[in-house]
Amino acid sequence: MTRKLYIRTFGCQMNEYDSARTADLLAASHGLERTGRAEDADVLLVNTCSVREKAAEKVFSEIGRWRAWKEARPELVIGVGGCVASQEGAAIRERAPHVDVVYGPQTLHRLPEMIGPGGTAGLRRPRRPSVDVSFPEIEKFDRLPAPRADGPTAFVSVMEGCSKYCSFCVVPYTRGEEFSRPFDDVIAEVVALAEQGVREITFLGQNVNAYRGAMHDGRECDLALLIAYAAAIEGIDRIRYTTSHPAELTGSLIDVHGEVPELVGHLHLPVQSGSDRILGLMKRNYSARDYVEKVRRLRAARPDLSLSSDFIVGFPGETDADFDATMDLIDEVGFDASFSFIYSARPGTPAAELPDPVPLDVKRKRLARLQTRISEFARDVSGAMVGGRARVLVEGPSKKDPGELRGRTENNRVVNFPGPHELAGTFADVTIVEALPNSLRGALTGTSALAP
Length: 452
Ligand code: SAM
Ligand code: F3S
Known about the structure:
There is one protein chain. The protein is α/β, with parallel strands linked by helices. Helices cover 35% and strands 22% of the residues. The strands form 6 sheets. It has a 6-stranded parallel β-sheet, with helices on both faces. The longest helix is centred in the C-terminal third of the chain and has 26 residues. The site of FE3-S4 cluster has 10 residues, from helix 8.
């Protein structure tokens, strides 16, 4: 009987990517098949996030549920990976002794050895618990199997870690300093995915526009050049990148938005706050004006560009005036989506030492105002699309109605529309007929069945 693997993933797209690669790795080493049902699994992993306190706490409630299963079936293997693992290390086993392996974002490639003998002989309990949350940098990518495509879109991780050290953020401590994968390795991965039918790739990194990959001739490749090379690969028709830091948005990267049609007309560019005082305390290395100026230059290069962002509301000492500056920036830029959260003090980060006199209910009200404003912008953008045409990459059957298709526009909106299932994995031209709160409805135009 095939042994099964269950992975619960918290947090960002980097974690989604790491979970997918972990599944590939354990399929190759132990013949494990991924399942969406935890109760069926022989190996249970949780890939954790510690960016906010709530995310970290959810981890212990998840593995707490698995304790009784482990008592009933001692051969089960339970593992904790990701950023909480990196931060807590062996302490996880003190709080949850039924955990067998603790691995960090940079050591997931060592999981097969940590789990213990497997393969055709089947899975056995690891002889002793194993903890490895070190940062061996390049080793991870060299030891992961070649990626397998799962549909027409794929993530390609181009760099690990972050060296920005924003005062509120744990990532540099949990994922280590920035490290870029060599240019040739990234291109080989994109080619392999394109050969498997991938049409859209998203270059991933915590600070992806700091990418500086070594080229075989000794030069360094930045993200702008990498995008230009990837766009020339047969089959790759859409390129995205995330998450980028405004201070690393160079002139050449801005230019690429106007020069490379494969690069989508949408950019996620986290600003965090519109107050220069708060941006200084956050150690973001740009002012609100710098940000708005970069957006102006981006839109000069690509007039239809839509922007989304991350915001932290209620950073220690944020005043009404600071928050108003954030709302003014939102109005000036016109974001059409956001990931916005109340500030969460993370142990070990400099901001956690700052006095924080603002009451939680004030922070909550500010967050609600901000989210309402951005939803209004999003509704207006969706509304303006009605009656127009959009090119969507068809991902497969619609989640709401499997008789219909689901595709994504360049500005990341889901469009559900009736059409033949053979269009899955291709581009289709649709007319937008209705804007709903979280998706659009479309109708195929006459030519789409012929779309390449
Ligand atoms: N590289 C990105 C950038 O330039 O900002 C951010 C990556 S970070 C892991 C993802 C998002 O988590 C941040 O943009 C920020 O909004 C949020 N975040 C990080 N630390 C946080 C904290 N302590 N409290 C609330 N939100 C936080
Ligand atoms: Fe975190 Fe700032 Fe890096 S938000 S991931 S330290 S760019």
